[in-house]
Amino acid sequence: MLSGLRPIHVVRLLLLALNTLVIASTVTLIGLFERDCKVGYKFAQQWMLFNLWFSNVQVKVSGLENLDPKRQYIFMSNHRSAADIVAIGVALWAFQIRFVAKKELLRVPVFGWGLWAMRNIIIDRRNHVQAVRSYAVAGERIRRGISVVVFPEGTRGEGGDLLPFKKGGFVLAIETATPIAPIAVVNTETVMPKRSLRIESGVIEVRIGKPIETAGVAYKERDQLVEQVRDEIGALIRGERAAKPEREGRSQA
Fold first, then answer.
1. If we measure between CA atoms, which residue out of 54, 252, 77 comes closest to residue 152?
2. Chain CA centroid to CA 120, Å
3. What is the chain's Cα-based Rg?
4. Within the chain, which residues score under 50 in pLDDT?
5. Residue 169: C-alpha distances to residues 196, 202, 220 (Å)
6. CB burial class (10 A; 0-12, 13-18, 19+) of residue 106?
7. β pairing state of 57-62 and 247-251
């Protein structure tokens, strides 16, 4: 599997594995004693920064002025690469965030431990009852000061077109009256291509739109909310809503 990789790609992959082993083990231990693993998340952010640094990846962020760091949000983003997680985590540095992740990721050695210990929202896409319970848990964490990141496409897409959006995250936003903050992540598929172990140097853009309030939105209006958020993310991808970059940081892929 490594035969087609250049030496720099192998080195980056090995550093990623070592960094993941150390940090995920640390986060797992912390998670045994801390309800929401907020301290553990700070270690996870260092994992993100280090991976960005050795991969020579920069994250450029625009639109942070749209957010209130004292509020919780449901962040919704397009999804093109595994690097999206790191780029969003670095861009939203001031927030305690947890990701909605598919159950299969728990099986990834070491990484899965940290994913579980950090109290991310684990969804079994084949079990609707379990998925509903997981979103209920997400609601409890929002009330304790944690924001949630949802990839409403449900899987990694390709190209500029958005896949159909799944509605679970929107129902969560309506039931908890939590504003939805649309996000576009651009160029992660070049930094860490789908179905590849390569980690390339490059620049990732994270564009944050104005939050959409959900207080007072009825459940029956969820389809209109889906379309509104989808339109906003599409506009951010095309650069129609983007502000001037206000922060740069070395990022991981």
1. 77
2. 10
3. 17
4. 250-253
5. 29, 31, 15
6. middle
7. antiparallel
Question: CA triplet 25, 16, 202: central angle to 5 degrees?
Answer: 140
Give the model's pLDDT for residue 3: 57
pLDDT of 2 reads 56
pLDDT tens per residue across span 15-41: 999 999 999 999 999 999 999 999 999
Cβ-based neighbours of 199, under 8 Å, separated by 6 or more:
9, 12, 13, 16, 55, 57, 191, 192, 253
Residue listed under structure tokens 């083990």? 25
Phi, psi (5° rounding) for residue 22? -70, -50
pLDDT at 250: 44
Backbone torsions φ then ψ of 52, nearest 5 degrees: -65, -45
Residue 114 and residue 27 in contact, taking contact as beta carbons nearer than 8 Å: yes
Q: Which two structure tokens, joined as six digits, stand for 7?
A: 């030496």
Give the span between the Cα atoms of 204 and 248, in whole angstroms.
10
Domains of the chain listed by start with CATH number: 7-251 (3.40.1130.10)
| Predicted local confidence at residue 242, as pLDDT | 56
Predicted local confidence at residue 15, as pLDDT: 93
